[in-house]
Amino acid sequence: MTGSAQTRQTEAGERYDVFHTDCVARDVVDHVTSRWGIWVLISLRSNDLRFYELRESIQGISEKMLAQTLRALVQDGLVWRKVEPTTPPQVTYGLTEFGRDVGEPLTELFDRITRRLSSRSTG
C-alpha cells in the first residue's frame, strides 16, 4: 500500500485497486466522469480556452461548477492553468499530456455516439 491508495503488485509493476474507496486513481476517474468533467476535457481537445470561453462552450454549466471541475482536473494533472497578470486576470486552460491521453477515448466515444445518432436521424 502506498499512502492511503490501495495498490496491488503485478508483473508490470504497481497497479491501483480502483474498487477500493481510498484509491487515488478512483478519485481521478470520478473527476473525469463527473457530470462536467467529460465536457471540459472534450471542450479543450482542440484549443486552449479562457475561463469564459469554456463557460460559453459548455451550455448549462454554472461558473461555480466550472471552477470546481477545473480545480479538480488541474489538481489531478489533466488540465493546466495559466494566469496572465492583467486587470482583471486572464486565466487560460489547456490539456496536459495526461489530459490528452485520457481525453482521447472520451472524444472517440463522443464521436461514435454523434455518428450513430446522425445515421439514425437520416436512415
Could you please describe the fold and organization of this structure?
The chain is of the alpha+beta class. It has 2 domains: 1-32, no CATH class; 35-122, Winged helix-like DNA-binding domain superfamily/Winged helix DNA-binding domain (Arc Repressor Mutant, subunit A), CATH 1.10.10. Helices cover 50% and strands 18% of the residues. The chain contains 5 helices and 5 strands; from the N terminus they run ββααβααββα. The chain has helices at residues 24-32, 37-43, 51-57, 63-75, 97-122, and strands spanning 7-10, 13-16, 49-50, 79-84, 90-95. A 3-stranded antiparallel beta sheet has the order 3-5-4. The protein has a two-stranded antiparallel sheet with strand order 1-2. The protein is globular. Mean pLDDT is 86; it is low at 1-11.
Helices and strands in order, then pairings?
Elements: E1 7-10, E2 13-16, H1 24-32, H2 37-43, E3 49-50, H3 51-57, H4 63-75, E4 79-84, E5 90-95, H5 97-122
Antiparallel strand pairs: 1-2, 3-5, 4-5
